[in-house]
Design brief:
Keywords: Amino-acid biosynthesis, Lyase, Pyridoxal phosphate, Threonine biosynthesis. Residues 93-370 form the Tryptophan synthase beta chain-like PALP domain. One of its GO terms (molecular function) is pyridoxal phosphate binding. There is one protein chain. The protein has helices at residues 15-21, 39-44, 51-63, 69-79, 107-125, 138-147, 166-173, 188-199, 202-207, 218-221, 226-235, 252-262, 279-286, 310-316, 321-327, 335-349, 355-371, 388-395, 403-409, 422-432; strands spanning 3-5, 8-13, 30-32, 85-88, 93-97, 129-134, 153-160, 179-185, 210-211, 242-247, 267-274, 328-332, 376-380, 416-419. By secondary structure, the chain is of the alpha/beta class. It has a domain at 83-103 and 221-401: Rossmann fold. The protein has a six-stranded mixed β-sheet, with helices on both faces. Strands 9-6-7-8-14 form a five-stranded parallel β-sheet. It is globular. Pyridoxal-5'-phosphate is lined by residues 105, 107, 138, 247-253, 301-302, 356, 381-382.
Length: 433
């Protein structure tokens, strides 16, 4: 499979180029250039097929010009020592739990595959790269966990001092090895600007091969299609066509589902669930797409006012709002309703969900209200233990922190404090690597 930019279909690149470039040179996002039909392969997967087997088959089927069969399965095995799980709730709702990886959020799937593919390709070429990334919390921790111990890759994470949660900071600063955390005396925007400046600074790029790991990277998007396929393999006997509900911010997760569907997975519809940041639900209502500044909510990983993957969806749907509407229904859920939902599900079913998952669950119930009581699969994007403040406030129970995160609490923070200037990042890079 080859890929081209959403803004220029002439410039075809291979997977490796798309992976290391991240963003296309024209500012567009890379998308698959060819249609793939994997429906025969999908039909062979069943209840007993492991997640790594499904991932390995899909990597090979989609990327065989880059990875041979044994490399594909090797990547799947190393990238995914964890698997999704399904919990059945009342009212025909199934929860697809995607938080059993290292950082306890679904972003582990994307980050882990990205890291493993990069490492495999760098090894082949006997090269080294430095991943440079700015984080406001969550993404950085998934990236750090995914890359730790990879010999051919150094990771530099910039985060705004005092503005990430104590637990998030531990996730960024306690790994050691090839992971370095730069604590920037400034804001997240400063961190992002410093990273951007470094990528266009010739003194740096002449000496160091820089790459990024941000969420628009195809290497993070493609593996997110694997768990839709895995979920289908678990339920296909009693639900031949599935509706997936996706708590959404940048719409990467939902876009990956659309790709799985385009490759032949029988998904009948997607329900896009957003918090108050509702540009996509509004677009489906009135046909006008108006990106806005984001507003803060309790499902903060979804606080996105200008979803980056809209550009990929727009391309897939040929810019027609009717095509969006044919595949996607959308609901917005405000903070009060999110809290009520967490409370209600806990009281009725003793199941604790994180605020993002609660937005998805509520949207699924609203969809049932409008369309009849059909079975829905809700993607659960993070472990509730990562959001103790919200959960404790609502149900007066402190959710247990997953073991992966409890381990970190006992570790020592190590960071390098730097000024919020591009010069100080440049000094650091040129003296360290
Ligand atoms: C990133 C994130 C989301 C949003 O996913 P997108 O792919 O950006 O739509 C939802 N929930 C959690 C917990 C996240 O970390």
């Amino acid at each position: 499979m080859h890929f081209y930019s959403t803004r220029n279909s002439d410039d075809m690149v291979d997977f490796s180029t798309a992976l290391f470039q991240g963003l296309a040179p024209d500012g567009g996002l890379y998308i698959p250039a060819e249609q793939a039909d994997l429906s025969v392969i999908f039909s062979r997967f069943g209840n007993e097929t492991s997640f790594t087997e499904i991932a390995g088959e899909m990597i090979f089927s989609l990327l065989r010009s880059t990875f041979n069969r044994s490399q594909s399965f090797d990547i799947a095995e190393k990238a995914f020592p964890f698997s999704p799980e399904i919990t059945e709730l009342q009212n025909n709702i199934s929860i697809l739990e995607l938080f059993h990886g290292k950082s306890c959020a679904f972003k582990d799937f994307g980050a882990s595959f990205l890291a493993q593919s990069m490492d495999t390709l760098l090894k082949k070429r006997e090269r080294k790269a430095v991943i440079l990334t700015a984080t406001s919390g969550d993404t950085g921790s998934a990236v750090a966990q995914a890359f730790v111990g990879k010999n051919n890759i150094e990771v530099v994470i910039l985060y705004p001092s005092g503005r990430v949660s104590p637990l998030q900071e531990k996730q960024l600063t306690t790994l050691g090895e090839n992971i370095r955390a730069l604590e920037v005396k400034g804001s997240f925007d400063d961190c992002q600007k410093m990273v951007k400046d470094a990528f266009v600074d010739k003194d740096i790029t002449d000496k160091i091969t820089l790459s990024s790991a941000n969420s628009i990277n195809l290497g993070r998007l493609i593996p997110q299609s694997f768990y839709y396929v895995w979920a289908y393999s678990r339920i296909k006997d009693h639900a031949p066509e599935t509706v997936f509900t996706v708590p959404s911010g940048n719409f990467g997760n939902l876009t990956a589902g659309l790709y799985a569907q385009s490759w032949g997975l029988p998904i009948s519809r997607f329900v896009a669930a957003t918090n108050a940041n509702d540009v996509v639900p509004k677009y489906l209502e009135d046909g006008f797409y108006n990106p806005m500044a984001s507003v803060h909510t309790i499902s903060n990983a979804m606080d996105v006012g200008a979803p980056s993957n809209y550009e990929r969806m727009f391309h897939l749907f040929k810019g027609k709002v009717e095509n969006f509407r044919n595949k996607i229904s959308a609901y917005r859920v405000d903070d009060t309703t999110t809290e009520d939902t967490i409370k209600e599900v806990y009281e009725k079913e003793k199941y604790i969900m994180c605020p993002h998952t609660a937005v998805g669950y509520k949207a699924a119930r609203l969809f049932q209200k409008d369309n009849g009581d059909q079975p829905l699969m809700v993607l659960s994007t993070a472990h509730p233990g990562k959001f103790t403040e919200v959960i404790e406030k609502v149900i007066s129970v402190k959710p247990e922190l997953p073991e992966e995160l409890r381990k970190l609490e006992r570790r020592e923070k190590v960071s390098v404090i730097i000024e919020n200037t591009s010069e100080s990042l440049k000094d650091f890079l040129l003296t360290t690597y």
